[in-house]
Amino acid sequence: MNDERRARLERFRQERERQNARILSADHLGIKRFFNLDTSAYHDGALDARTKELLGLVASLVLRCDDCVDYHLIQCVALGLSEEELIEALNVGLIVGGSIVIPHLRHAFDTMDVLLAERAAGSGDPSPGAG
Amino acid sequence: MNDERRARLERFRQERERQNARILSADHLGIKRFFNLDTSAYHDGALDARTKELLGLVASLVLRCDDCVDYHLIQCVALGLSEEELIEALNVGLIVGGSIVIPHLRHAFDTMDVLLAERAAGSGDPSPGAG
Amino acid sequence: MNDERRARLERFRQERERQNARILSADHLGIKRFFNLDTSAYHDGALDARTKELLGLVASLVLRCDDCVDYHLIQCVALGLSEEELIEALNVGLIVGGSIVIPHLRHAFDTMDVLLAERAAGSGDPSPGAG
Amino acid sequence: MNDERRARLERFRQERERQNARILSADHLGIKRFFNLDTSAYHDGALDARTKELLGLVASLVLRCDDCVDYHLIQCVALGLSEEELIEALNVGLIVGGSIVIPHLRHAFDTMDVLLAERAAGSGDPSPGAG
Amino acid sequence: MNDERRARLERFRQERERQNARILSADHLGIKRFFNLDTSAYHDGALDARTKELLGLVASLVLRCDDCVDYHLIQCVALGLSEEELIEALNVGLIVGGSIVIPHLRHAFDTMDVLLAERAAGSGDPSPGAG
Amino acid sequence: MNDERRARLERFRQERERQNARILSADHLGIKRFFNLDTSAYHDGALDARTKELLGLVASLVLRCDDCVDYHLIQCVALGLSEEELIEALNVGLIVGGSIVIPHLRHAFDTMDVLLAERAAGSGDPSPGAG
To answer: Is the ipTM of this complex over 0.90?
Structure first.
């Protein structure tokens, strides 16, 4: 079962990369520029990247987007955030968004467990940007 | 016009206090406990209160709730966050939530300007908790 | 202040009636039929009108629409639901929808207080249908 | 195909139980208390549990959460609500939420059919609480 | 009352212009670029500006943002769309989004009536871009 | 992998047809009438069907419903819209809805690629109506 969750996350990474490449191949200026803005929004600035990835994580949770939650969890774990910090952020999302968020909280814990195990084992690089 | 925005924020504070007191006067156990959970979610813990208030701010912005944005801006400014930090958080909310967020971004800048002016003038205490 | 809330609700009733009449004057078949479907959805059937208006109330609260909350509260109070029953329904909406719902809960309590006072005083007829 | 839908629902029950246990194992006070509030919100009170589960069902439908719809359908069927009553509640959700709800209505009918067949065959216990 | 609606729309135009200028004065690169992308998205291209403004109008209606609806109605009327065309687009938004959209439909008809009267009288220029 | 996406779309078509038939078999007047209204909303009128299907597509994208996006893409491709036109419409949805829309944009490009390949090969009829 744990293998199933690892396989789900691996498939997400591969599909996301394939699909983003497909979208960018359309060479639509607006879409390309938006993808760049999206990546830049999480770079170190007045707030550091760790804080901004937590912002992206909680925004994704309250908007109830599993793929976006997975993406920001990947970034958060790569930036060194601890399980305790992630759970506190997820709790903020739960309180803001209510019980309708719970299925996505379940999904988030599954993904977090896979990522923290990967990090403990020394694998799990951050993904290239965009959504 | 600036007076108008200051008056709007002052009215929000007073109405929010009156209405929360009315709700709690109903003495409904579930509602009271939820209000307590809501307050606790932003206390210092594995993440500090500043980070958590930023999480609340961005969650409120992407869910497009002006009153919630105002409440978290009040807390953020009371906790010492700078204009630059707030704008970077608002930008994350804009990118996640898109142009539909812009009217709420306009509202947020108005509120932020009032609050930062209040802070510079030495007024503007944090509000007691709950949404 | 209580006068202010009574005036707000009275204005809502008048504007809603004026605006619905304007919309229907356009004589668009799809819109007219949708308005009819909307009215019929809350009539007694396998579930009674009281239960259905509660469903409309909670749906409106979690979708965070103040006007829709006001409309269904008007119907609920006209159908004889008690303050305790309404608060329990609002609590379900709060738990499902989270703290982002709180500003609308504040609005709902204000409207409920006006309507219950009207009912105790013997006024406050149900509105004709449609959203 | 009917087997496929039964298997989907069975998997939902098992995964939900496993994942909720995982979340609660984190022993986060805010999350645990929220889960308790969520369970309590649907207990008999000023409104009975049947009405409250219908409220949860329609709130879940208009917020377009398949897992939440499935959970509340499980509870509704265990509490003895009939197909006619469930369909009337789903219709309220469809009218409030519009055609964007239709894919979730399709999902809900599939789940309802499995649950009503289970009930007719004498199986299908209610699930323990939380989202 | 008609004067009231004309005054509301005029205030929206002025406030929107003042607030957008304030936001851009912060000179945040991400925000400025997003505002540019937002403006460009509605320029003539593979689809003409009229079609794209209708897309923006319906997207705004189903996301239930009155200010965004007003903005796109201003553009649509300036681009020559007729009352019949606008109502058909609004009907699509109503069907997709359901009765929760109705309060925003009421707002939209009020705005549309003011704008069509302005156009018939020979006033009412399109606004400069961004949300 | 391309086969996988074709199979996904084929399964969507079959399941949608089976499930819509099941819903209509319940013979609930409100639901049946809503399905009819939904179908009619996209017929030629003051706006042509092509424009209206684009409206449905963008509304579905900003509301982040993959099944609805697939349905309207099927109709758009059957009505002869080009890849360039579809991408411009999708870009409007991306800008309005922000990065939270990106996972659904990825899904939409996959579906669009299958449908355009089907059209080039001379297959791919429009689906019968309703959501």
So the answer is: yes
Could you give the 3-state DSSP secondary structure of residue D64? coil
Is the four-CA dihedral C2, C8, C14, C20 of positive or negative sign? Answer: negative
**The pair of three-digit structure tokens given for residue D81, joined into one six-digit string:** 């609500």
**Contact yes or no for F100 and A63 at CB 8 A:** yes
Would residue A88 count as lying in a domain?
A: yes
Interface contact F100-A59, CB threshold 8 A: yes
Q: Which chains have 3 or more CB–CB distances shorter than 8 Å to chain D?
A: A, B, C, E, F
Q: How many C-beta atoms lie closer than 10 Å to residue F116's C-beta?
A: 17
Retrieve residue D12's tokens: 């939902």
- Cβ contacts of residue D94 below 8 Å, gap of 6+? D61, D101, D102, D105, E98, F30, F31, F34
Q: Please count the structural domains in chain C.
A: 1
Give the per-residue pLDDT at D2: 83
CA distances, D52 to each of C62, C82, D96, E52 (Å): 14, 15, 18, 43
Specify if C110 maps to a domain.
Answer: yes
Q: How many Å apart are CA A57 and CA A55, to the nearest integer?
A: 5
pLDDT in tens, D45-59: 999 999 999 999 999
Q: Which domain holds residue A72?
A: 2-120
The 10 Å Cβ neighbour count of residue E75 is: 21
Dihedral sign from CA coordinates of D62, D68, D70, D75:
negative
Give the model's pLDDT for residue E2: 83
Mean pLDDT, rounded, of chain E: 94
Task: List the alpha helices (DSSP H) in F63-126.
Answer: 66-78, 83-97, 102-120
